[in-house]
Amino acid sequence: MIRRYEELLNLSPNSLVAVVDMINRYLSPTIKSAPLLERTPAAIDEVGERRLTTLLDKIDENAVITGHEWDELTANLAQNPSYATFRTDGWDRMAERLLSEMIVATDRAWVQRFEAYSRLLSHPRGQQPAIAACGALGADPTNQVFIDVISVLDASPHPDASLEVLRQLTNPTNDRAFYAALLACPRKSQLSHFGGPELRRLVPLLRELQRSMPTCDPNGRLAAQILSSLRCSPPSAGTGDGRLAAETVEEVIVSRLVTGMHPITTDGRDLLDDDLPVLLRELLFSPVFDVRMLLVLMFRVSPYRERLADGLAAELARFKDVENTALLLSLINAMRMVAAVRHVSVFQLLVDRPDLPIGGRVAAARALGHLDETASNTAWQEVASVHVSRWRTCGDEASAEILGGLTHGLGISDTSILDQLSQAGPASVRAAAQWWHNVPTIVRTSAQS
Fold first, then answer.
1. φ/ψ (deg, to 5) at 264
2. Which H or E run includes 189?
């Protein structure tokens, strides 16, 4: 049925299916490997086994594997967990290949691979190899992608997944790995993945983080939210219920967005969807990162996408609450997922605003790199040139961080500007550019399909 909606709305195959799979998995009260959306046939017959063999051969042969094929392969294995003819070490190779594609994929290709990897993380036979692949990449200091690699562990109830999350909280590879581990905690806490020994390590760490972080700091908000879900501590003064802005601010912003988004028919009838204000409120202000991410993915495949992007562009242009880093990041991250190339100037202006916190400027630089290469190449060149010059002239640390954010976005986009950054700028930027260059061609090609 959902595939038919994709046809009627002229969407790419799996655009809606992949998002619905992710939302179903997140909202399910228990973690299961198989997706709730049924595939036909559910059982592996002789024809199905030949098809699985073909897909598994592609992993062994380092061939291109499309997002649809990852969906097909992992859904079949999830629906048939006792499938016995799996080849030796096949789970390890599958997990490593799928994870390597997931971290360089974007848009629908990323959603498909993220959902496929979540199936491995809760599969009776696939979960430990999948956890081990995340742990190995998360522990690698040269790695350039940590959020996906560590936060995805909330999809596994296995104790090894909880240990990997706790390891990054107590002895993190870097700040990004620490934040990713925090992102994994709300859902793992809600689903009681942490036992007594883990909680005795986790709760004091969260309380100290909540006490020491400013009210609007994303880490402090996450700590307060996790403690609240564990029922270990009431929210501290100033954090309230964890929302990213005061209720009055929510009302003003949501009202402006709704005004610009709801359609009116040619005969003057107002078609305002009563759920739209509720969804927008949670999209931008929910204290739960996963809720915000799932909602923006939903809007991205809806007819509201372009109007939402224009509304968010206007909100970012008028943004003045520079102390509220969490809200600024929420607006930028939502904008990144729905923006068109014509919005390139929005991100470029944010990068150049010295009054914004550096985290927001870096997020804007990263988002800039996600836009279509051919149309935004000039903007990338301008940002890179300006901040390489500033860093070389006066060792500007803000410019170094902005170049790091730009490098991440460009690494995913696979642009020649990486060649320039790999030879200029701070050592960390040169190393990051080289890491992205070293992504195997077959992995990058597959990740774009």
1. -125, 130
2. helix 175-190
pLDDT tens across the length of the chain (449 residues): 999 999 998 888 889 999 999 999 999 999 999 999 988 777 788 888 889 999 999 999 999 999 999 999 999 999 988 886 677 789 999 999 999 999 999 889 999 999 999 999 999 999 999 999 999 999 999 999 999 999 999 999 999 999 999 999 999 999 999 999 999 999 999 899 999 999 999 999 999 988 887 766 778 878 888 888 787 755 444 445 678 899 999 999 999 999 998 765 556 566 678 899 999 999 999 988 999 999 999 999 998 999 999 999 999 999 999 888 889 999 999 999 999 888 999 999 999 999 999 999 999 999 987 776 545 577 888 888 889 889 988 888 999 999 999 898 888 775 667 777 777 778 999 999 889 989 999 999 999 88
Please state the φ and ψ torsions of residue 270, each to the nearest 5 degrees.
-85, 125
The C-alpha atoms of residue 56 and residue 35 are separated, in whole angstroms, by 20
Burial class (CB in 10 A: 0-12, 13-18, 19+), 153: buried
Q: What is the residue-wise DSSP string for 406-435?
A: HHHHHHHHT-THHHHHTTSS-HHHHHHHHH
Indicate the residue type of 237.
A
Phi, psi of 331 (to 5 degrees): -65, -45
Q: Which of 123, 26, 32 is nearest to 77 (CA)?
A: 123
The answer to whether 375 and 417 have CB atoms below 8 angstroms apart is: no
**Shortest CA distance to 284 belongs to which of 325, 339, 331?**
331
DSSP alpha helices (H): ranges in 9-125? 15-27, 46-60, 67-79, 90-102, 107-121
Q: What angle do CA 93, 99, 101 make, to 5 degrees?
A: 105
Do 418 and 433 form a contact (C-beta atoms < 8 A)?
yes
**Residue 267 to residues 59, 262, 274, 304, 430, Cα–Cα distance (Å):** 55, 15, 20, 20, 58
Q: Residue 179 to residues 203, 222, 348: CA-CA distances in angstroms?
A: 16, 9, 25
Instruction: Say if residues 98 and 70 touch (Cβ distance below 8 Å).
Output: yes
Residue 269 makes CB contacts below 8 A (sequence gap 6+) with: none
